[in-house]
Amino acid sequence: EDTAARRLVLWSLLFFAVWSAASPLSTTLPLFLVLWLMRSVTQSQDGEHWHDGRSLDTLPPLIMDHLWLFLMLAVGFAVLRLLQLLLLPVIACRLLPKVRAGLDVPLWHWRAQVASIKLRWATAASLELADASIQASYFRLLGARVGRGTTMSEQTLLPDTLTIGKGCFFASANTMTSVKVDQGRMRVPHMTHIKDGCFLGNQNHIAEGIQENTFVGLRTWVPTMPEDGGSLFGNPAMKFGRPPAAEGTAIGTVPQKVWHHFSTSIIDVFFWRILHSCFTGVALIVGRLVFPEYSGQWWPLEFVAEVAIFAALSVLTWLLVPVGFSNLIYNDRMPLSAPYYSTVITRWFNVNKIRRVFTKPLRTSGSFWDATMLRLIGVHVGKRFFSPNDDVMIDPPFGRLGDDVTVDYDGQVRQHSFEDDVLKWGPFRVGNNANIGQAAMVAMSECADDVSLLRGSVTWKGQVLEAGVYEGAPAAPVDEDFNFANGA
């Protein structure tokens, strides 16, 4: 037994050492590959000693004469990086040993490390695909069992232990695994089995599974398999009644379906990454045109000027694409209700992906400029707004915030619901002097003036919050004698 234990420890340490060395290399491999190819081209055209001149930062004549190669470099890196992000999880999930339900091992055990790799890589790839129509097919490549007619956005998952039935619809940011990490051990107590016809809203956690035709709302925790189906919401999950779904909302014409698949799986997955890389290439080209080489005396100032060029083009890119173009195709003049295959939905998906790829050039959260940045993307913001978060408003064009509104860490305001294959928007208003606590969410609800939503609380869809303090999921008024200083 001692020999077997020592062998297990050695194998686990070896696996950890190999993985620690390979992981950083895997993230930089596309860049090294593209640079190696360009280096080979320049050496074959200009010889091996082009860098021995007297000037600093001199590029090979072939590159200076064909600056468009910078665009090829940037695009090549973006494509290779994306392919790596999507293909490596498939290889890992298929080649590494299966993770079985009932796993209970120390964190240093090689099986725990395998489970961690699969969980992390599969989740990262799913996040990259976002709302792509190929998301379910990609889950199958990872090894998960997914039924026909199932549609989903990005999820957190362990593919080996996940089974999904037919005709399900999952919105974004759900967790579908029973993995537990506690007291230095990793446990996978159950398979996760989601049966036919289920709906998951956002940020729910399904551990063991749910029965057929179960509706799970927002930020709902379902730790065990329920005895029957129904509608669940809250933490702990409670049942509630809801009207039956309308017929025909997911039926689209052939052109609508073709455009939906092309837009979500080609444009959103590849085009926006490539476009972003092109702007990086343009910045390199402009820098080389303005400063083809650094002089020996003024090179520090020239370097600072070139950095300023990169910064200016980064701001300009953000103003053109995530602000200008996105506001053109996604604004509060859009219909407040749209079926699944409508172009309203694909435009919404486009903008969500654009703003994920083209991030803000400046971190303004927690500063005076945060309200200005929110106004640029369509939010109606009152005076003296404050939040340390980057993504306060989930649906910016329909956001309405009064004066003196404070949103604490991880708090959010949600303006849409996506049930029964129909997207519905507000707008809903958050009144003056409102305070949204840590990880709290105002979800499709109206808030009057002087509302305080305590940490971790979530409102009902359509709920109207009068002045006062609210707590829970779903949020309910707190007794009048509640001490806010002690409870917040």
TrEMBL record:
<keyword id="KW-0812">Transmembrane</keyword>
<dbReference type="InterPro" id="IPR011004">
    <property type="entry name" value="Trimer_LpxA-like_sf"/>
</dbReference>
<feature type="transmembrane region" description="Helical">
    <location>
        <begin position="270"/>
        <end position="291"/>
    </location>
</feature>
<keyword id="KW-1133">Transmembrane helix</keyword>
<protein>
    <recommendedName>
        <fullName>Peptide synthetase</fullName>
    </recommendedName>
</protein>
<feature type="transmembrane region" description="Helical">
    <location>
        <begin position="67"/>
        <end position="91"/>
    </location>
</feature>
<keyword id="KW-0472">Membrane</keyword>
<feature type="transmembrane region" description="Helical">
    <location>
        <begin position="303"/>
        <end position="325"/>
    </location>
</feature>
